[in-house]
Design brief:
Radius of gyration: 30 Å
Strand order of the largest sheet: 2-8-7-6-5-3-4
Number of strands: 25
Shape: globular
Distance between the termini: 53 Å
Length: about 750
Amino acid sequence: MEIGSIYEINPQAVTLDPPGGKEVFSLSEVEKYGKNHHRFTASGREAIALALKSIEQNNPSVKKSCLLPAYMCDTVFFPFERAGWEIHFYHINKNLKADEHELCSQINSLKPGLIFVHPYYGVDTLSAVRPLLKEWRMQGICVMEDVSQSYYLKDAGQNADYIIGSLRKWYPIPDGGFVTSNEPLFQEKLTPNESFTSGKLKLLTTKWNYLYEEGSSDEKKHLKSEYLRKNREMENWLDNFSGIGALSRESMNILSSTDEALCQNRRNANYRYLCERLKGKTQLVPILSEEDIPVSSKAAPDTRTAPLYFPIYAVNRDDLQKFLTDHDIYAPVLWPIGKENEGCLTRSERYIYDHMLALPMDQRYGQAEMAHMAEVLDQYEKLKNKDLESTPDAKSEIIAIRADANDIIATGHIMRCITIAKQLKAKGKRVLFFTADEYPRAMLENAGMEYICLHTAFDKMTLEVPALRKELKRLNCKKLLVDSYQATKEYFDSLADLCKIIYIDDCFEAVYPVDMVINYNAYHVRFPYREAYEGTARLLLGTAYVPLREEFCSRSFPDISPDKASGTGRHILISSGGGDVYNALCGILTEAVKREESSQNIFHVIVGSFNKNARELEQLAESHPNIRLHYNVANMAELMQQCTIAISAAGTMLFELCAMQIPAIFFVCADNQQYDSEFFARENRMLFAGDIRINRRECIDSIILNMEALLKNRKMQERMKCSLHEVTDGKGALRIAEEIIKL
């Protein structure tokens, strides 16, 4: 049994005579858009080329600048480039949706002549953006919608000037694309490319013979290699073809004989079957939900859509694809990264390109084929789980850690958990991280940590409970450390029967049903932890438990010699957390470099893994050689040791600065940091500059003024160093690990 790959065509279905003598060709799924003009082309990219010619014909003064989604097939770029259009990109998140605020900003700044939109995999991922399309059209911006992945989508084409699509992706035809619009379409005479059509027909009928005709294994192998080789050649030819061909008569006849409603219903049934069979998987997760594909019934016979594939995110996409191929299931990667968009991709887009796999489930197949594919995926899941269970130290106690890192919550949670995990491993314990998504993957792998991705929403933790319970039970994890502000009482209650729970809680927003609570902040005294948890939970409170990395335990301190105390050219560390959500770094540096006193200072800037403003920082550094950007710092203590003072957002880094005795100015940029100001500003341990969320201008001005004052005042620096030395000895992670082991 083979599933997937290119369509096969029954040689008996190929004819030049239209069914029933019907000479006028039309498709109901194209008619549904309600446009006045339709033309059928040989491919989707040729439909784009025809639409672009039509746009220029109907609006000769159009600005030839187009905004396209960064997640896109690179062949889409070809007709734009050939027609001389300037290409810009807007960004897509992991849910395959555009951020409407960012998109509006790009529209306002670029003022493109055309915006190209694309609903993905049969679902209206454009629903939030559609109202804006009408506004942009009123501003004179042309809208082109590509429905190549959402041919059956009922809501597609709303507020689009041009709708284009590929028919080859949906049906066993040698060629096929279309463009429809209310504007007149370019009237260039289109003729079928007979050599391409005949070549495609030959290879697709060869596949039919390979699948259904008799023959030896050697003959079958030869047939397969031939049609795959020929298909590659023809697709390469199409990539380089710059003309516009017409839909062939052979394709028209096949399409005219096709029951589109039957195809749609078969796809939906296959999708819902796989949705049910693939629940609870840890090695893959469906990108779309079962609710995205509506159920057809007698009461509501008109389904709104049908999926092109069953798209999934896989933990190890290439490994899973190979496993499927070994079992004669051919799941394509959509798409390779193109040279046009490679340099502008966000982390989310790179995640899509690196982890997305398209499982075949089109109308060629029924429940038997879907059941076979589900069984193969079950085998893969068991194999990977067995690999995890058979690691060398599998017999040792497994301590689980549940934490996340992304561009919203940044890296602090996962980093402190890695620090604790290293101490647990040093004590002979096996540690296993659970994450909602793949964002922390590189951090965990670089730290040598095992992990399982649950493929869930980090901010909806109750939804992950079934999958997490399954894994905790399977691996016999008896202790779970949780570090997330998204955890709730219900979440902990649902896990309490499986393991002892340790919670890092520095907000005290509720009393949780857990076995251990950690708050290493000095401000823990503001909250009644002892009264609330008396007799129910072990408490680790205060700065003795600050989980600093091992590099901060054995340290030497920078010596500020008198001859440098009043000079310029001092080294200053600047950090604002992994995400720098409020773009504090650019704000501080932009103001600092304006001042003559700061012109010779060396600014060492920590650019976090999830910093969305990295390009702006790089531009600043290009213009100012005294700004030095640091990515993925391997030894932060070593870098700190080079610096005279530091500027930092509140958080764990303040404790690291204490351990290194670096005088610092700090500011607040998150709710959980609001109490830090009381402790660190007390007795001038550090200088507090304010909350950047409340008054950005005032906070940045305060940072700059305090920086200049502190650099000039050697006595203040010395007093601060003595005070910082008393805060922490750097052994908090070791103490936490020992208490978890004893629990």
